[in-house]
Amino acid sequence: MPLHRTERARTPYLFHFKGQTVALGNPEFLYEINDLLLKAGISTRPTFWDQAYFEGPSGEYIELKGTGVEDFGAANDKSMLNSVGANLEREEFWDAIEKGVFLGTPWPVGNAPLVLNEMPVWLKNARSWEFDSVLPPDGPGEMGGWARLDERAGAGYPVGLFQLTSEDSFWVLGSADDLDGIMELCRELAPIRTGFSQATGFIGTDARYNCLALPMGCRQVLQEELFAAGVYAETLFWE
Known about the structure:
The chain is α+β, with helices and mostly antiparallel strands and about 240 residues long. The protein contains 5 helices and 12 strands.
């Protein structure tokens, strides 16, 4: 399957693991997610471009104690925000988001009708994954990967290239059709480019690729190939 040019709108990437939820993607989306969680009384962990999260290079978990992006001096520069985390399971996260949306509703003056806020479309359409330690690999990688929870049919969505759990590899997240195209590209590059023979797809309950894992040495070449094909890649790496 060939690569498809990105034609679909950007949405956040949500990752659920060990009783936590972390959002990645467009900084403006992350800023609003952080704000909604704070309105719901949830303590959040916003991080910025000079910080790591999930696990640091030495394996330690980076936990920030701030309650809002203002605490880190980024209130006027949303572009600095690269993740928002909270100690919430998947259902708890969405309950908190809905509560934040409701509490953000402006109360009417006098006899004016009450018009409830609605969740933004980009947030309703957020894509999410949950780490599954026994997700089977298709390739040389070890068992365990990100199981997709909210599929979007078709191709042409943005894809995420995220370094989440290891200093030696990164994950590729996207729709099943988009991941098929990227895996095919990796196989084409394997005979001529170092590292691509190690590309591993992880198969979910839908019998499709839910995520891919590649060595860090593949990062630049893959980004260049995706850019040339018109695929919009959202990235986050520790360095």
